[in-house]
């Protein structure tokens, strides 16, 4: 997905929220204001079911990104 290029993805396990921040804005040892996080839940709406309790993100050799939830479901991030 072009909108994710240069973005760092992370999730809140308990509240089921997925955000991104630009890599370029991150610096080791400094804080990034939460008000500048981009909420991404609307970008990751599965065709069936719902993403709950994200445990990890993955990337394959082709650069495709995946979300894995606690139930073991794996969701591929595809453009709409």
Structural commentary:
There is one protein chain. Strand 5 (65-69) and strand 6 (74-76) form a beta hairpin. Helices cover 0% and strands 35% of the residues. The protein is built from no helices and 6 strands. The strands form 2 sheets. The protein has a 3-stranded antiparallel β-sheet, with no helix packed on it. The chain is mainly beta. The chain starts with 6 loop residues before the first strand and ends with a strand. The protein has strands at 7-12, 17-22, 38-39, 54-59, 65-69, 74-76.
Q: Which secondary structure elements does this structure contain, and how are they paired or packed?
A:
Elements: E1 7-12, E2 17-22, E3 38-39, E4 54-59, E5 65-69, E6 74-76
Antiparallel strand pairs: 1-2, 2-3, 4-5, 5-6
Entry keywords:
80 residues, mainly beta, three-stranded antiparallel beta sheet, 35% strand, globular
Low-confidence stretches: none
What is the overall pLDDT average? 90
Written as H for each helix and E for each strand, in order along the chain, the element string is: EEEEEE
Which value, in Å, is the CA radius of gyration? 13 Å
Span from first to last CA?
9 Å
- Structural class designation: mainly beta
Helix content: under 10%
Shape: globular
Number of helices: 0
Main-sheet strand order equals 1-2-3
% residues in beta strands: 35-45%
Question: What is the makeup of the main sheet?
Answer: 3 strands, antiparallel
Strands, count: 6
